[in-house]
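Why this split exists: single-chain examples teach little about how molecules sit against one another. For that reason, every record in the complexes split bundles all components of an assembly together and asks for one structure covering all of them. Below is a record exactly as it appears in the raw files.
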Amino acid sequence: MPSQLLEWKIATVAQIRDETSEVKSFSLLVPEWRTHRPGQHVDVRLSAPDGYQAQRSYSIASAPGPDGRVDLTVERIAEGEVSPYFHDVLVTGDEVEVRGPIGGYFVWEPAFGGPLLLIAGGSGVVPLMAILRERAAADVAASATLLYSSRNWDDVIYREELDRLATTDDRLRILHTLTRAQPPGWTGFARRIDRPMLEEALDGLGSQPLTYICGPTLLVEAAANGLVELGVDPGRIRTERFGPTS
Amino acid sequence: MTGRFVSRGFLGRPRDTDADRAGRIPPGQYLTDGFPVLSAGPTPQIPLGQWAFTIEGLVRAPVRWSWEQFLALPARDWTVDISCVTKWTKLDTRWHGVSVDDLLAAVELDPRAQFVTAHSFGGYTTNLPLTDVVNNQAFVAYQYDSAPLEPAHGGPARLVVPHLYFWKSAKWVRGLRLIEEDEPGFWESLGYHNRGDPWREERYSGD
C-alpha cells in the first residue's frame, strides 16, 4: 500500500438489512472511496457531543464496486459500545465516520486464483463473503470451498445468498457445521471444526489450496493447526482472528 | 480530526472516572480484560530443542543462545500496559523475561547500527529504531502471568515493546538484526505505520 493518508470520511447509511437476529448489514456510501480489495476492513469512529470518541474495525462484506458503496456486516455485542449503536440507533440517512480500506495481507483478488479454501466461524464469514462475492462477480474459474461454523441454523449469516451461489456454481462447495443445535433432518456437520472435517473440506482442492480463515481464536487455531498437520504449507494460510468486536 | 462531527444519538460508555486508568488509555483505544490473539498465519510450533535466539548484523561478532542458555540470562518481572492497533488496550499485563539491554550487552555494536529488525519463526518481521528498544523499554518475554508463554501469544518467547502498538512486539521471536538503514517489516510494508506510537495514534502509513 502506498504511503497515503487514510482520511476520516463522513459516510451516509443508504440501507440497513437484517441478516440474523443479532447481525445486520449496513450499506454505506463513502465519498471519494478508494476501491477496496476483498478481505479488507474499515475503521469506524463515533463521536459524542462532549468529544469522546470510540473506534472499531469492521470487515467489508461487499465486493469492490465502482459506486463508493461499502457494506459492513455487524454483529451486535451485548456489552459493546459501537455495535449496539449500529443496531439500535442508526437509521438510513444517518452519517458515520469511516476510514479505509485497511489491511494488505488478508486479501484476495481474482488474479490470485485458487483453489480457495475459506473457513469461517460466526461473523468471521464477513470478509470471506467479500471474497466469494468478488469471485462470483469476476467469474473466476478456480474452485472454492467454504467451511462455515455457526451455533444454530438461524445464526448462519448470508444463508440464502450462500445457497444461491452454491446452486448456480458447481465449482463452489459450502459446508456448514452447526455446533450447538441442528434443525430436524440436518445432514451437515454438527461439531466444532476437527481434522476429518478439514480433510473433507480439502477434498477436490488439491493439497495446497490458498486458505483464508477468519473467526474466534480457538476456531482459527484449530483450523490452521489442523491444516498444517494435514500438510498445507503455512505460507498458503492467511488468518484473521478476533474476539467479539464490541 | 474531522472538525466537530458528532454521531447522532451517540453518548458512549460512561467515561472511566478512575484518573489513573483514564490517563493510561491511548486515543481511540478501549479497555479489555481479555487477551485477544491476532496473527497473519498459523501459529508456529517450535520445539524448545530447536529454539535459539540470535543477535546479528552490525555487531563485532554475532551471538546465539539456546533455550537453556537464554533461561540462564538475567531476567526480571515486567508489568506493562499494551495497546493493539485493532483498538484494545490491556493494563498491567505481567511478563517475565530479559531486557533487550542485557541482550545487546553481549555484543559489541557497530556504531553504524541505527535500527533493529526483529525476526520470528514463521517469517514475521518488524522494524524498530534502536532508540525504541534500549533503556529498558523492551524485553524478550517467555512467561506471561507466571506461566510459560502460550504459542498463540508468541511462545516460546516474544519481543515486548509496550510503548508501541503491539504488532511491534514480535511473537515467536528468534533474533534481532542490527542494521544501518531502516527496512519496513511485515505490517509496515502493508500500510501500517512505520513506528506505531499509540499516544500519537500512529496506526497507518501517513498517520
